[in-house]
Amino acid sequence: MVAETFPRLQHRAALALLCGLGLPAAAQVDITDDSGHRLVLKGPAQRIVSLAPHVTEILFAAGAGDKVVGVVAYSDYPEAARKLPQVGGYTQIDLEAIAALRPDLVIGWPSGNRSAPLEHLRALGIPVYLNEPRSLDAVAHSLEQFGRLAGSEAPAQAAATAFRERRAALAARYRERPAVRTFYQIWDRPLMTVNDEHLIADVIRLCGGRNVFGQLSQLAPTIGVEAVLAADPEAIVASGMGEGRPEWLDQWKRWPQLEATRRDNLFFIPPERIQRHTPRILDGAQLLCEQLEQARARRGAISPAAPSGGA
């Protein structure tokens, strides 16, 4: 299908580039993406297509929401993103729909987008920037980079500064607290977790937790129940699919010998607050830090940290 429509796409891309010739000159944007690829734009992008929900959210947070002309499915935050044209899902990109939007920049996600469509877009002459934040520092960096790409540096810098300040406040309050052995459960069947290279693991560290599966080689490995029983986490934190606590979280009560079960440390955080690489991840971090503090308090000998404002 892609091969059949490729000449038509080339024609549309050429028209899009010609349409931009009459635009006023702007400062060149010379930038390197998260894959190490250098990108040079003649000026800040005016028509951006986002290929991941987290990219859409960061663009809006960076003050570039008015430049976004297309998104993928599940780009549902902020509310304005729901009204934008969709170009498929992040794993099934519609190349024709993208070309029809005449973008001067596409922002992709290497972990979620397939490489072939991204290469096709580059072959059409459409600049592609790849975003892959795997730490909290990288989320702030993404805000700044998107601000440069879209010419919204001032609001992007303000958002990045606010993010770093909130992160620092959480770190000051929780990072040095006694460690809590933590198992983060992404899903039930298959049973999945994260290693220490994952952004969620950075949140666990921020809260003074220790990821019991941090040393595994895969970013989001599949494990067995036996591995969880052997690791014997003090806290189990699950996400699921929506705002409701997943029923499978309480299945760990079938193993009363687990320390997390014995101490009632089975916690839930809505996935959009901790599994999206956006500023809202600090909302999830706040919840996780409070939950791990509950786990410490249930040891009996350690009292919770004193309340503090600003976090």
TrEMBL record:
CDD domains: BtuF. Keywords: Signal. It holds the Pfam family Peripla_BP_2. PANTHER family: MOLYBDATE-BINDING PROTEIN MOLA, VITAMIN B12-BINDING PROTEIN. This is Periplasmic B12-binding protein BtuF. It comes from Thauera chlorobenzoica. The lineage of its organism: Bacteria, Pseudomonadati, Pseudomonadota, Betaproteobacteria, Rhodocyclales.
